[in-house]
Amino acid sequence: MSVAATSPAATDRRVPRAVTIGAWAVPVMVLAQFALLAGVPVVIALVGALTRVRDRAVRLTAALVAVAFAIPLTVWLVRPDGAQSLSKDIHPAFVALIVAASAALVFTIHRARRRLPTR
Fold first, then answer.
1. What is the pTM of this model?
2. How high is the mean pLDDT in each 10-residue block of the chain (119 residues)?
3. Which of 74, 70, 64, 72 is nearest to 106 (CA)?
4. What is the dihedral of CA 76, 79, 85, 88, to 10 degrees?
């Protein structure tokens, strides 16, 4: 009889669906010019990854997405002569960085799910 197959620790490592949806929604929203609203899935993915996911790589890439999003948001909020929206003010390099970080998060979530034992 294997204890590891029925252990709560083995089933506790699942990646919540909200983290996965948030990881996919961030690049879509940023590329569709809804950059300020993309803060909502960034926060959902970050909080969900930090509180509910045991895989360290998923937590680190979620933090990377949050930092990549926070930098242009902070610049936009602090600068007095900024555009009316974050989508118009964000540099294309930051858009590429956010999309790349989100792709890395999606990849690590997929990798974490594949490593989980099946029931």
1. 0.83
2. 48 78 96 96 96 93 97 93 89 96 95 71
3. 64
4. -80
